[in-house]
Design brief:
By secondary structure, this protein is an alpha/beta fold. It contains four helices and six strands, in the order E-H-E-H-E-H-E-H-E-E. It has a six-stranded mixed beta sheet with strand order 3-2-4-1-5-6, sandwiched between helices. The longest helix is centred in the first third of the chain and has 15 residues.
Length: 159
């Protein structure tokens, strides 16, 4: 069984002169990202593998979460930015098989779509606001075997 935490980036500034990709976290976004990291750390017993979009707000969120959890490295994957559900499923399929637990940091609407794709009971799904976390247990032994409906929604958290 694999466990995935789907984490939307923290609250970001409304716009950036450099464009959407460069939008930075607000102070609230930084605080909420730390809360999300503490929440995840309180659930798991060993550090997870963390993969993030390369957009500024997602990378900052992932780094804050990693610091809170004592994770030294964060994997960066450009395919998470503006990703479709199929793109995100491919990101999951590429996760290192040795890792039992992973955190994906990214953006809506793709992340909510991924949760709907994975969940065996879509009626338990709620919206994924900024810095919100959805925890799913996946009934697979390999990340490469992840498929529609293989996940059980365990919990959601909103700072």
């Amino acid at each position: 069984m694999k466990t995935v935490f789907v984490l939307r980036h923290g609250k970001a500034e409304g716009h950036s002169a450099e464009g959407d990709f460069a939008r930075k976290l607000t102070d609230r976004g930084e605080v909420d990202a730390a809360k999300a990291g503490k929440h995840i750390a309180g659930i798991i017993s060993s550090p997870p593998w963390i993969v993030t979009s390369d957009a500024a707000r997602a990378m900052s969120t992932a780094r804050i979460v990693a610091k809170v959890m004592g994770v030294e490295e964060v994997d960066v994957d450009h395919d998470i930015y503006e990703a479709s559900v199929n793109d995100l499923v491919q990101v999951v399929h590429r996760m290192p098989e040795a890792e039992q637990t992973a955190v994906i940091v990214g953006h809506n609407p793709g992340l909510e779509g991924l949760i709907y794709f994975l969940a065996d009971d879509p009626s338990k799904i709620v919206g994924l606001g900024t810095a919100c976390v959805a925890q799913l247990e996946l009934a697979v032994d390999r990340w490469g075997d992840v498929h529609s409906g293989c996940g059980r929604m365990v919990s959601t958290y909103s700072p």
